[in-house]
Design brief:
about 0% strand, mainly alpha, about 140 residues, rod-shaped
């Protein structure tokens, strides 16, 4: 593709002169060729950016859907864990209640047995005292 020479405004030709303007035009043309891109390349870049933008929009929608699904799963897991901990809590308190009942029964039995022991010792002590008294009078 042929490069058109730069058209320099007449006021610059008048101020700088033809020789300077021609040198400036050649220099500016070479700089633009080295560093600038053509309109076709620019259009290609824009079309690629449009494709990327579309792909990013799809990816963004996918990420939002994934986030929603994860939130739902975490909410369900949280409810299940709460239910399970509530059940474990109830079971633990039921076991503690049964254990307290057993301890109360054991305490009651210990009191009854202690009373019987004290009563038996009192009766035995009384019998021994009576027998010692009879043996002392019988002498």
């Amino acid at each position: 593709m042929a490069v058109r020479p730069l058209e320099v405004p007449p006021i610059l030709r008048q101020a700088w002169g033809n020789e300077v303007v021609d040198a400036f035009a050649v220099w500016l043309t070479s700089v633009l060729e080295e560093r600038a891109i053509s309109r076709d390349e620019y259009r290609q870049i824009l079309s690629r950016l449009d494709i990327l933008e579309h792909d990013m929009a799809d990816l963004k929608a996918d990420v939002q859907e994934l986030r929603r699904e994860m939130d739902e799963r975490f909410d369900r897991l949280h409810r299940e864990m709460d239910d399970r901990f509530d059940q474990l809590h109830r079971e633990m308190y039921e076991r503690f209640d049964r254990m307290n009942e057993r301890m109360d029964q054991m305490y009651h039995q210990m009191v009854v047995q202690t009373r019987w022991l004290i009563g038996a010792l009192t009766v035995i002590g009384t019998v021994i005292s009576i027998l010692l008294a009879i043996a002392q009078f019988a002498r």
